[in-house]
Structure formats: C-alpha cells, structure tokens
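Thread amino acids onto this structure.
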C-alpha cells in the first residue's frame, strides 16, 4: 500500500471509495465501509492519515479486512492533511487542530487538599478509664492492707457481678439460661472456702456448686437442659474457682504483698502491651480473635512484666530474688495475654464488644477480670515453688 492511494479522488486506486465515507453514502461502486466508519455522512470525501503498512491481525496477509481493522477504534481522533481532525465518536464536522508549540510545558497538577494525618484512637474514653482504674486500685489496696477479710469480700462481690454479666450475655445472645442463683451462692462460698480451707476447700466448693447447678436446672422444662448446665459448670470454673487462688495467696504471712505483686504484674503487662502496641504495633497477633493485639504489643507486655517481676520479687516478697521475678513476669505476660484472647473469643462468639457497662471506659467487671482470672493460679503456683506457701 503506497501513499498515493490515500489522497486519490473517488474511483481511483485499487480501493477507490473504500477509505473515504461521504455525507451521501459511499462512492458508487465502492466497497462497503469498515466498522470504524459507520459515522454520520459528510458533504465531501476527506483524505485519511497515512498509516504505514502493517500486517493484518493474526497473519501476514495485507487484505482489505486487515486494513479495516487498522482504521477501526484504535484511531478515534483522525488528523487530516489540511491540519484538521475529526472525532469519530462525537461529530462528523471537522474541527481546528489544537495549536502546537515547539516545547510544550506540561500543565501543573491541580493542588490537592492536604489530608489531615489520621490519629490512632484508643477506642475508649481514656480519661474515664484512668479515673475508674485509680478508684478501683485505691479500694483494693486499702482493703488489702487494712483487713484481709474485707479484701475477701471484695473478691466475692467481683465474682458475683462477673457471673451476672456472663450469664446475662449468654441468655441474651445465645438463649442459654445458666442458673444464676446457685452460681452466685456457690461462687461466693468458693472464694471463702479457698481462704479458710485453702485448695481443698476450693475443690469441695466447686464440686458442690456444679451439683447445685444440675439440680436447680431440673425445676424447669427439659428443653435445653444440657447446654444450660454445661454453661453453668463452665461459668463456675471460669469465674469463682479461678478467683479462689487470689484468696489462697492472701493466706500466706506476706499474703498482701503476694496479691499486690499479682495485681501489679498483670496491670503492668496489660499496660505494656497497650503502650507498645499502640505506638509500634504493625503485625497482628491473632487478627481473627482480637484485631487490636499485635506481636509488638506482646513483646511490650513481656518486657514490662519481667522488669516489674524482678523488682517485686526482690523488694516485696520474702526470700524472693530478681531472677525469679523475671520468670514470674514472663509467665504473667503469657497467661494474661491468653486470658484476654480467651474472653475475646467468647465475646466474638456472642457478637458483643464488652461484657457489661458497669465501669466507664472499661466495660464490665468481666472485661477487667479477663487477664486476672487465668493469671491467679499461675502466680500462686510459682510463688509456692519459689518461696513456699508461707
């Protein structure tokens, strides 16, 4: 295909009339127009731009069908020899070509509004959380070092409220009716038995509480009996039985110091996880269970807890040493994290964010006990191994 055939008048050349649609239809006797030129008719035949010979799509044959493809949608804005161009998609009338400059400068980008950097949010009312935490700390420390029996009462109250929150959420979200009355009475008795009769009393009270749950549920219709009593026994073990280890710590001669060490290490572990995770957290720890927890936060929990453990064992616990505190802090960080993940699993299954709303900025009592409950038996056992039962 040569240059002379592009500008020849109608009737000339091997493809006369094929490349030039007119306003009155194709030149008489010409081949039908290609698919890209079913456009509005023009008054005059316009010369087409020169396109170098290129093999047709799919082969080496330079036939009319291949030429029609080359002049199709790839050439939507056609520039002609007279300096005008026609937009095949909008109008059939020629328009003046845009003036060209030798060194066109690119248009500056339109200024984009600067987006304000997003700040990390703690997700709670931090002021209320700090205020409630300080208030609870004052009550706990005052009862712990004034009269031991008062602190046992504080544990029992926390257990009963925690059981009420847990059983209420189970009934609301899953229709599981774990009997609260035998759980509350047996849970409070379990804490007292652990303080008075140590581990033996705690186990006996646990067995009696489970039996009371089985019998109490028999007064209602049998539908759902198995799931209700199963949830009741689980609640009895999860809340009051684990809490009895705090009461058993209190029975030692340096009991208040042991309980204070247990509380400090758990709080420091949670604080270290929050502070480091909020500032440096990038890698999720368990995204399907608790998306907010990160591996960096876990390292922060371990570091903070080990330092606090070394200090507490050295200066608070009789006959304790700093290296024992390092091991104790490591164990507390692990158990507190697992406890937090465990309750997060329960809350995800129930489809709730918090177990309650009793504590502003914290949620419910169970949302504060999640790390403490599984940590209590760990601290009790390690302290017995390190320095004896006292």
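Threaded sequence (390 positions):
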């Amino acid at each position: 295909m040569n240059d002379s055939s592009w500008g020849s008048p109608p009737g000339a050349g091997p493809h006369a009339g094929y490349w030039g649609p007119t306003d009155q239809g194709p030149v008489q006797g010409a081949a039908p127009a290609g698919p890209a030129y079913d456009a509005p008719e023009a008054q005059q035949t316009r010369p087409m731009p020169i396109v170098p010979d290129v093999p047709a799509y799919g082969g080496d044959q330079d036939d009319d069908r291949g030429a029609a493809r080359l002049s199709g949608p790839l050439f939507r804005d056609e520039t002609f020899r007279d300096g005008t161009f026609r937009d095949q998609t909008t109008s059939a009338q020629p328009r003046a070509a845009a003036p060209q400059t030798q060194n066109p400068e690119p248009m500056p980008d339109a200024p984009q509004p600067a987006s304000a950097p997003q700040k990390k949010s703690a997700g709670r009312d931090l002021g209320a959380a700090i205020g409630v935490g300080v208030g609870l700390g004052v009550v706990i420390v005052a009862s712990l070092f004034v009269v031991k029996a008062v602190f046992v009462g504080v544990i029992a109250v926390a257990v009963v409220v925690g059981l009420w929150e847990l059983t209420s959420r189970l009934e609301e979200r899953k229709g599981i009716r774990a009997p609260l009355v035998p759980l509350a009475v047996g849970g409070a008795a379990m804490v007292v038995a652990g303080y008075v009769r140590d581990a033996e009393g705690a186990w006996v009270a646990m067995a009696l509480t489970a039996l009371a749950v089985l019998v109490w549920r028999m007064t209602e219709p049998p539908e759902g009996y198995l799931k209700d009593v199963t949830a009741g026994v689980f609640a009895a073990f999860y809340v009051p039985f684990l809490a009895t280890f705090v009461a058993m710590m209190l029975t030692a001669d340096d009991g208040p110091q042991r309980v204070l060490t247990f509380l400090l290490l758990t709080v420091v572990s949670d604080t270290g996880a929050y502070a480091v995770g909020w500032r440096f957290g990038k890698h999720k720890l368990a995204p399907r269970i608790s998306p907010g927890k990160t591996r960096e936060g876990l390292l922060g929990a371990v570091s903070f807890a080990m330092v606090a453990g070394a200090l507490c064992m050295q200066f608070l616990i009789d006959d304790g040493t700093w290296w024992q505190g390092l091991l104790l802090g490591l164990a507390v960080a692990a158990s507190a994290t697992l406890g937090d993940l465990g309750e997060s699993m329960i809350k995800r299954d129930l489809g709730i964010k918090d177990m309650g709303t009793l504590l502003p900025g914290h949620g419910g009592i169970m949302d504060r006990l999640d790390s403490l409950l599984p940590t209590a038996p760990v601290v009790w056992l390690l302290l017995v191994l390190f320095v004896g039962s006292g």
